[in-house]
Amino acid sequence: MAKGSGTSTADASSVVSQRNLGVLISGRGSNLQALIDTIATGELDARIAVVISNKADAAGLDRARAAGIETLTISHRDYGVRADFDRAIASALLERGVNLVCLAGFMRLIGTPILEAFPNAILNIHPSLLPAFPGVDAQAQAIAYGVKVSGVSVHLVTGELDGGPIVLQAAVAVKDDDTAETLSARILVEEHRIYPEAVKIILSRRWMLDARRFVRLPGPP
Ligand code: GRF
Hints:
Blueprint: E1 9-11, E2 20-25, H1 30-40, E3 47-53, H2 59-66, E4 71-73, H3 82-95, E5 100-103, H4 112-117, E6 122-126, H5 138-145, E7 149-156, E8 166-173, H6 180-204, E9 207-210, E10 213-216
Parallel strand pairs: 2-3, 2-5, 3-4, 5-6
Antiparallel strand pairs: 1-9, 6-7, 7-8, 9-10
Helix pairs in contact: 1-6, 5-6
The chain binds 5-O-phosphono-beta-D-ribofuranosylamine.
5-O-phosphono-beta-D-ribofuranosylamine binds at residues 25, 27-31, 60, 104-105, 125-127, 191.
């Protein structure tokens, strides 16, 4: 993994060679739905091999079942040691031939066992223009700070919370009368548009990392 300063690069072709996605969720699953729908229309050439939730009552599990996708609940509460929870998730993904992991509202930190199993092959979507407002309640953070523009970022996952190389971003204007809810709703529209797009870019393998910069290589979209 290209990390820190310097000119080291990582060749994407050695990382993602097939098109099997594993999606990790904790709740509503609207971004999961966007991926399901974009695959169904043929715009995204991929297959969701499994959806894993750390919560048995996550609404996103019903979305996956409705689409005929295998679901698993792996609860962090069943593991005394965090690394064991991470290993269970990594094993479940590897056993199903997953090449690219998509975090879609997964509310647990991604630990070393998952990072090592999927180097440069884990994506996350975060509802702010990173590096602004990492962590929880990003939309409320943006309102409280008073920024006039916020948005959404899709990034590769590293050991740093919401800190990996940025694949795509979309900006959303913040209105004076916005609440966290109204801003979230407008950001969500952009989330559903750019997450499938970012997955497509990763699977195209036409990209490289230059230190922490995600750089797209020429070629068809
Ligand atoms: C989204 O706002 C996403 O950016 C953040 O968590 C939320 C998940 O929503 N990481 P959903 O479960 O995909 O509807």
